[in-house]
Amino acid sequence: MSESSNSYMVKIDGLKSKHQDSYLEYLKGKYEFSFVSSKPSKKEKHVDILIDFESQKKGKEFIDHEIYTTYKKEEINLIEYSKKMKEIIKSQKGNVVMKNIPKNIGKKELYDAFTSAIGPIISIKIPVDDKHDNLGYLYILFEKPEDAAKCINEFNGSGINGNIVILEKYEPKVSNNGLFTNLYFKNLPQSIDSDTKLERLVSPYGDVVSPKLKIDLRTKKLTGCAYCSVKTHDDAVNVIENLNGANIDGKIIEVEPFQKKQEIEKQRGRELVRIQNSKILEQQTLFVSKAPINSTKDSLIEFFGGNNVIIEFDFDPNKNTMRIEFKSKEATRNALLKSVTHRYKDFFLKVEHYQQKIERIRAVSDSIRELENKLRIMGIEPFEFNRISDDQAKLLLENEDLIPGRFE
Known about the structure:
Blueprint: E1 8-16, H1 20-28, E2 34-40, E3 46-53, H2 56-66, E4 70-71, E5 74-75, E6 77-80, H3 83-91, E7 95-99, H4 107-117, E8 121-125, E9 137-142, H5 145-155, E10 159-160, E11 163-164, E12 166-169, E13 182-186, H6 195-202, E14 208-215, E15 222-230, H7 233-243, E16 247-248, E17 251-252, E18 254-257, H8 261-276, E19 285-289, H9 297-303, E20 310-316, E21 321-326, H10 329-341, E22 350-353, H11 354-362, H12 366-377, H13 390-398
Antiparallel strand pairs: 1-3, 1-6, 2-3, 4-5, 7-9, 7-12, 8-9, 10-11, 13-15, 13-18, 14-15, 16-17, 19-21, 19-22, 20-21
Helix pairs in contact: 8-10, 12-13
């Protein structure tokens, strides 16, 4: 798709597919533009739309006026669609994470405030649960990396609607194995039926070197899995950030760093030794995190031994975590060892004793505890301290002017 030197294309996302026609009619009553294309979004039942304005001025005015306004109770996000903008988004150098945000925070208010005080913003993303409540953090992607640094310097530790917010530079998740360029895909839809289509899926997020669908040697049919090598580690991280958990033609796909069988066996062997040498086998309650996206309560109960060995099973489908209380230490031991030696839906589950999780969360530094006490004395409800670092706590203690005495 070629981009005219005079035109200004805008990508619209956050819109439900069923509202596409009525939303475009609504826009035509206010702006002059031409429709370019639309395609299903990563978010299920949503659509991404491209429209084109005859000049940069008109396109930017459209974004400034309409970004994060609501249509049919849905917040609409607008992004300039150009090669330059795609490179900025891919690099993530201008991305900032804001933690401990209040429940009543809005994208439009943030966009207007930070655009005015700092500089141009590409997007604001606020992860939410199934009740549309935010998860306590958000991402702000600035057009310029220096604006991201300025935002952190000026607003880290400031108060927003009664909460002290923490701002940090966004760091993409990296595999524990260090650098990687080989990826493994699971749960691909039937529509991805050729290496070319796999490459087309991945290429917007990284330079593809070698895409290969996995075929069952016995039946000669596709397995829904694939291997894909990209040019750099940054490309691989970007692919995982953008495609892991994405809805592609009704399927929630999973993307992870590829590990050779020998590497997996070596890693599981170390984990088995750790567990056998710890006191975890003496306990009867386990905590499981990072279960696959398509996990179900019934299948997890069956994996861990069935209802005849389990007293209580608390499963959080939003976070894919669970707490399991077993009837005996032997049942706990068997379940724990199975989690190390057997896969659940092609994944090894991360399992720890529930009390260990509680102790780990409570094991905060003296600086964080001192900050907690100071805030309570000042009449401020402390935020979640496991989300901030020791250095950040020291910063707030050394600069008390960053902590408002009481919020109005």
